[in-house]
Write a structure and sequence with these properties.
By secondary structure, the protein is α/β, with parallel strands linked by helices. Helix content is about 30%, strand content about 25%. The protein has helices at about 40-50, 65-70, 75-85, 90-95, 115-120, 120-125, 145-155, 220-225, 240-250, 265-280, 285-295; strands at about 10-15, 35, 40, 55-60, 100-105, 130-135, 135-140, 160-165, 175-180, 190-200, 210-220, 250-255, 260-265. Strands 5-4-1-6-11-8-12-10-9 form a 9-stranded mixed sheet. A two-stranded antiparallel ribbon has the order 2-3. Strands 7-13 form a two-stranded antiparallel sheet. β2 and β3 (about 40) form a beta hairpin. α3 packs antiparallel against α4. The longest helix is centred in the last third of the chain and has 13 residues, at about 265-280. The chain is globular, with a radius of gyration of 20 Å.
Length: about 300
């Protein structure tokens, strides 16, 4: 890494959504606090940040999201109770949730799109490169996904987003990129140049089968692009529009993710993530597998 490349130390995590796809469960509970096995979705995102070397997480919140702030706050009474009952390991686990991370919170007062949510964090991010993590996506691989994006950014000084191969019959559910080869000896063919992005195209009009996953590493100039983006349908400002501006300027790369993208943003994906991660749980996995095998499917 050259000396004039700023270290990536901040991440923006948008959590202001209403979670309507999970109603009635999300009537009183933030969607981000729904659990995959034994951890809420939001904790997977924060743990990925920590494992990637990020020390400042900025939550873009909305009404009814206080449980997220409470989850990452210290709970001395709970820890003391657990310790007094001989549950020292569990007390330690509770104490370490969010340890070593600075948390900031800013409100998105209206649901005006992902681009607007990112723009709400502009003052807290400042003139620094930053990561964006969508908390209903778990990047299930051998290493922290955001760390890989940071390494690519620091080597190339260009914005970079993670991509996954999408079946043609599902491209209409994703933002799809128009890729071009990028000569990169360190990462080979998995790193591509992005020429353009198309939001939820038909299979016939999709420029590729590479979809956006929900992990981004962006330069601070994205804020200027988003400020000048006109609202689209529903008055929303889409992050994709800002990414298109970066791509037009030749400043956006894509990295094909090696692991599995667990999209827990809808009920089916949420159930699938619980099954996949539950089967690998060191305490529950063996019994859970035996139960599934006993079902008459």
């Amino acid at each position: 890494m050259t000396s004039n490349v700023r270290k990536v130390r901040k991440a923006v995590v948008p959590v202001a959504g209403l979670g309507t796809r999970f109603l009635p469960a999300t009537k009183a509970i933030p969607k981000e606090m729904l659990t995959i096995v034994d951890k809420p979705l939001i904790q997977y995102a924060v743990e990925e940040c920590v494992a990637s070397g990020i020390d400042h997480v900025i939550f873009v919140t909305g009404r009814g999201k206080e449980a997220i702030e409470n989850h990452f706050d210290h709970a001395p009474e709970l820890e003391a109770m657990l310790a007094s009952r001989g549950k020292a390991a569990l007390a330690k686990q509770v104490h370490e949730i969010g340890a070593g991370v600075q948390f900031s919170y800013t409100r998105q007062s209206e649901a005006l799109g992902l681009g607007h949510a990112v723009l709400c964090a502009a003052e807290l991010v400042g003139d620094e490169p930053f990561a964006v993590l969508l908390p209903d996506v778990i990047m299930d691989g051998s290493g922290p996904a955001t760390k890989e994006l940071i390494e690519i950014y620091e080597a190339n000084r260009l914005g970079v987003i993670h991509l996954e191969r999408v079946p043609r019959e599902r491209v209409h559910l994703y933002g799809i990129i128009d890729p071009a080869p990028e000569k990169n000896p360190q990462w080979g063919e998995k790193v591509l140049r992005i020429r353009n992005l198309v939001e939820k195209p038909t299979a016939e009009k999709a420029p590729s089968d590479l979809g956006i996953t929900g992990r981004y590493l962006l330069p601070p100039e994205i804020f200027g692009y988003l400020k000048n983006t006109k609202p689209g349908a529903g008055g929303e400002i889409q992050l994709t529009d800002g990414l298109c501006r970066l791509a037009d300027a030749g400043k956006l790369l894509g990295c094909v993710y090696d692991g599995k993208v667990q999209d827990a943003g809808d009920k089916l994906g949420f159930l699938c993530a619980n099954v996949d991660l539950g089967l690998r749980d060191p305490k529950l996995g063996q019994s859970f597998r035996a139960y599934l095998q006993s079902l008459k499917l």
